[in-house]
């Protein structure tokens, strides 16, 4: 809130110009539609909106912990105890992330594991 209170009108305009352009947006279309007619409608309704320049790719935010962090919270409305164990892991789509996804499936699915081939 402190940053919002201290923002000037020029700060807000600059932020808008940088982040609120069609080149930094995602449009999702779902359902049964004709691709050619949708392209015409997109051009009709959004075609005049100009690009706000190139959007720089974001760099990975690699987590690091210098020591173990332990937190405790007692929920007065909980019916059963819950323990969460969390570790920093590689970001999605990195080489090691696939092995961790596979391990999570093995650990989470219990006895319902599909046939796994080891080679």
Characteristic key phrases:
single chain; 119 residues; mainly alpha; 4 helices; 36% helix; extended
Explain what the structure shows.
There is one protein chain. The protein is an all-alpha fold and 119 residues long. Helix content is 36%, strand content 0%. The protein is built from 4 helices and no strands. The protein starts with a helix and ends in a 10-residue tail after the last helix. The relative contact order is 0.08.
Outline the fold blueprint:
Layout: H1 2-6, H2 9-19, H3 35-46, H4 95-109
Quaternary structure state of the chains depicted: single chain
What is the percentage of strand-forming residues? under 5%
Computed CA radius of gyration, to the nearest angstrom: 23 Å
Q: Which sheet architecture does the biggest sheet show? A: none
Low-confidence stretches: none
Termini separation comes to 55 Å
Give me the strand/helix succession: HHHH
Quickly count the helices: 4
* Helical coverage, percent range: 25-40%
Average pLDDT rating: 84
How many DSSP E strands? Answer: 0
Anisotropy-based shape: extended
Q: Which structural category fits the helices and strands? A: mainly alpha
